[in-house]
C-alpha cells in the first residue's frame, strides 16, 4: 500500500504542476517585480505588486488577457524614479508599455526588442540616456514610438524604417545625431517630431548623404 500511495502522490504532483499556471504567471510577475525593485515609488503606486500571487493580473496598473498573460503596463505620470530592466523583454504578450512622464534614467534595454506583440512604446518625458537600440526594429507590430523629451544620443536606427505598421514616431527634444530616415513609415512622419536635436540633420538624401553624418 505504501508503494502505491507514493506512486499516486507523485502522479498527482506531476499533473498539478502541468495544469496550474503558476510558473508562467510567476515568470511574468518576476519580470515586473524586477522593474518594481529598480524603481523608487514615493507615492506607493506599486504597492499592490505582490510577488507571492499566482500571477500579476490583479496588480494595479497591469492588464491581462483571458489567458492571464500581461498585455498592458500603465505607469505613466506616476512619479517613479529609477531605471528600466532587461527582464521586461520576457513579457512576450505585452502590447502597451506606458512609462511616460516619470523620472526614469539609464538606457533603453536591448531586450525590449523581444516584445513582438508590442503596439505602443511610450517612454517620453523622462531622463533616459544612451542610444535607441536597433533591436527595436524587430517590433513588427509597433504603431506608436514616443521617446521625445529625454537625453537620448546617437542616430535614429535605420532598422525602424522596416516597421510597416509604425504610424507615430516622436524623438524630439533629445540629443540625437545623423540624418532623419525618409523610407517606409518615415515618409509620413512630420519633421517637427524630430526637432530640438541639435546634431540631427534633415532627411537623408538617397545616395548623396551618409546615414551617420554628424554622428561621430
TrEMBL record:
Disease resistance R13L4/SHOC-2-like LRR domain segment(s): 81-171
Span of domain Leucine-rich repeat-containing N-terminal plant-type: 26-65
Keyword Iron: no
Pfam families reported for this sequence: LRR_14, LRRNT_2
Keywords of the record: Leucine-rich repeat, Repeat, Signal
Secretion signal span: 1-25
Organism superkingdom: Eukaryota
Protein name according to UniProt: Leucine-rich repeat (LRR) family protein
Source species: Forsythia ovata
Amino acid at each position: 500500500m505504501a508503494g502505491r500511495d507514493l506512486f499516486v502522490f507523485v502522479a498527482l504532483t506531476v499533473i498539478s504542476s502541468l495544469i496550474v499556471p503558476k510558473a508562467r504567471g510567476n515568470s511574468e510577475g518576476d519580470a515586473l517585480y524586477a522593474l518594481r525593485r529598480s524603481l523608487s515609488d514615493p507615492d506607493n503606486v506599486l504597492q499592490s505588486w505582490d510577488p507571492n500571487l499566482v500571477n500579476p493580473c490583479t496588480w494595479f496598473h497591469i492588464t491581462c488577457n483571458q489567458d492571464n498573460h500581461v498585455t498592458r503596463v500603465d505607469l505613466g505620470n506616476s512619479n517613479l524614479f529609477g531605471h528600466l530592466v532587461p527582464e521586461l523583454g520576457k513579457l512576450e504578450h505585452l502590447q502597451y508599455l506606458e512609462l511616460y512622464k516619470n523620472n526614469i534614467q539609464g538606457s533603453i534595454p536591448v531586450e525590449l526588442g523581444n516584445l513582438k506583440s508590442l503596439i505602443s512604446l511610450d517612454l517620453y518625458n523622462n531622463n533616459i540616456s544612451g542610444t535607441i537600440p536597433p533591436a527595436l526594429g524587430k517590433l513588427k507590430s509597433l504603431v506608436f514610438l514616443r521617446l521625445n523629451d529625454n537625453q537620448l544620443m546617437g542616430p535614429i536606427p535605420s532598422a525602424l524604417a522596416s516597421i510597416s505598421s509604425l504610424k507615430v514616431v516622436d524623438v524630439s527634444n533629445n540629443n540625437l545625431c545623423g540624418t532623419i530616415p525618409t523610407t517606409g513609415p518615415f515618409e509620413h512622419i512630420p519633421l517637427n517630431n524630430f526637432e530640438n536635436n541639435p546634431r540631427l540633420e534633415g532627411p537623408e538624401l538617397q545616395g548623396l548623404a551618409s546615414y551617420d553624418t554628424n554622428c561621430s
